[in-house]
Amino acid sequence: MNRDKRYAGNRKIGVFIADSYPVFQHGLESYFAATPDLVMAGKAGTGQEMMEGGQWTRVNALLLDAGLAGLDGFMVLKQFKDDNPDIPVLLMAASQDFRWLLKGIRAGASGVVSREASLEEMEMAIRRVYAGQTYIPAPLAEKLVLHYQRNEEEPLEERLSPREYEVMQWLTRGLKLSEIARQLEVSHQTVTTHRRHILKKTGLRTTAEIIRCGLLNGMGEPIEKV
Fold it and tell me: DSSP label at 1?
């Protein structure tokens, strides 16, 4: 089926590209121009340019180079996900080592893709994360399964992003979502999203279970309500 017609009628998917190589950016931009619904919503060549952009209202997915110049791509990812938990991130890296896959997932990536991937695979991966799914290339997925079969479960501070870990600490201490939002100076929806990610990453089901898990992991005693 012609890919120009396959997604006809769908809403526009704004993709922000943060990559150190202008040629790569231009190649993707030209490729997007041949689709009916993928559009370039912004671009940056360094970590500083990306974090100073600040205009994310038109962005539906972020394509992020793990080796972004100026700042460590994984640190940029963590900061971005803390500030924009609802925007999925597809992380790119040149290495096929599954350790960068683990690092990216822990930092908040919804998917990972090799820089050597075809443009068609890039498109598929972008659509997957935009749809709320994950994308991991088969060779890396196999290595990831073997890793988890051979290793004990990672500690919470490695499974959760720094902001998710902080939200879990406040939940453990008995604060409501609205109170946490005021404490962190973010919206109630942002805190709700962090809570949802905590449940997904830990396998817990309720706030009560989060509190119990937090206490078992030394996150402090609940705050006494007066």
Answer: -
Q: Answer yes or no: pTM beyond 0.85.
A: no
**Which of 121, 9, 20 has the alpha carbon at shortest distance from 66?**
20
Helix %, strand %, coil % for the chain, to 5? 50, 15, 35
Question: Which tokens in the block code for residue 135?
Answer: 């994308």
The rounded distance, in Å, linking the Cα atoms of 92 and 109 is 10
Domains of the chain: residue spans and CATH = 3-150 (3.40.50.2300), 156-216 (1.10.10.10)
Helix (H) or strand (E) holding 23: helix 22-33
User: Which residues are registered as beta bridge partners of 19?
Assistant: none
- Model confidence pLDDT, tens digit, residues 45-88: 887 888 776 678 889 999 998 877 555 667 788 888 888 889 99
